[in-house]
Design brief:
The C terminus is likely disordered. Strand 1 and strand 2 form a beta hairpin. This protein has about 250 residues and is α+β, with helices and mostly antiparallel strands. The strands form two sheets. Strands 5, 6, 7, 8, 9 and 10 form a six-stranded mixed sheet that branches. Strands 1-2-11-4-3 form a five-stranded antiparallel sheet, with no helix packed on it.
Length: about 250
């Protein structure tokens, strides 16, 4: 792997094997400290300095669904409410009793995290589902946005203090449904590669040794093998927080 800083707090990571590239993109969210890394797989026609980095992928668990609602079309609808629907976890539907649905969603980091959604059954009976995010780290309890905590939120400064009711809380966090071997480092970034030979990661994928990488380089040294990354932190946010923001009922 090679990396290059291009300015504007942006870094290009170039990979030389498809497994490395896919694992980083599929393993989102990644963090630098408590700040999420916003990633974009650069295409040959992209200009890295002008790419709008604002999406972050999360696995979202949906609780309090009635029986009969555990279907992909329901997950797609809820995923597009949370952000942009990407994937429905079919492996979670094999259990005899399921108390939550799991979907993968691309979330716009400039928007508050969704907390719940009101729905209706076919007979008109209303119900509310709760949303929880896997691998969610620091976020703001005041505005519900990623990249800062409530101690540094513009709303707190405008109000002159932290109110008792914050709107968001730790209940949005949830453990992963599967214990995956996701380490917070990029593969190929140093260390004893030979010691990792034949170590299974997940779903039959294996870490390749350095010698195997040289034999199996399937990605050209071009933008097609490159990921653009930047951190989402208070110091590089481009949008201000509306001090008059109030949590909606359906968030």
């Amino acid at each position: 792997m090679e990396m290059k800083e291009i300015g504007g707090k942006r870094i290009l990571f170039q990979f030389f094997h498809q497994l490395d590239l896919e694992r980083i993109m599929q393993g989102s969210p990644w963090y630098f400290g408590n700040y999420p890394l916003l990633l974009h797989h650069v295409k040959v026609w992209d200009q890295p300095s002008k790419i709008d980095l604002h999406l972050l992928n999360f696995w979202v668990q949906i609780f309090d669904l009635p029986m009969g609602f555990f279907m992909e079309n329901v997950g797609r609808f809820l995923g597009n409410f949370v952000g942009h629907f990407l994937e429905y976890d079919t492996s979670n539907t094999t259990a005899t009793w399921r108390n939550f649905m799991c979907i993968k969603v691309a979330i716009d980091v400039w928007n508050p995290l969704k907390r719940h959604k009101k729905l209706k059954q076919a007979n008109g009976t209303p119900f509310t589902v709760s949303l929880k995010y896997e691998r969610l780290q620091a976020f703001c309890f005041m505005c519900g946005r990623l990249g800062h905590t409530h101690n540094f939120c513009d709303i707190v400064f405008d109000l002159g203090g932290i109110p008792e009711h914050k709107g968001w809380g730790m209940d949005l966090k949830t453990p992963e449904r599967r214990q995956l071997n996701r380490q917070g480092t990029l593969l190929g970034g140093g260390g004893n590669q030979e010691a990792w030979e034949n170590v299974e990661l997940e779903d039959g994928l294996y870490i390749l040794t350095e010698s195997e990488r040289k034999r199996k380089r399937i990605l050209p040294q071009s933008l097609g093998s490159t990921i653009l990354a930047t951190t989402l932190s208070k110091s590089n946010q481009l949008l201000s927080v509306d001090p008059n923001f109030e949590a909606g009922r359906d968030q």
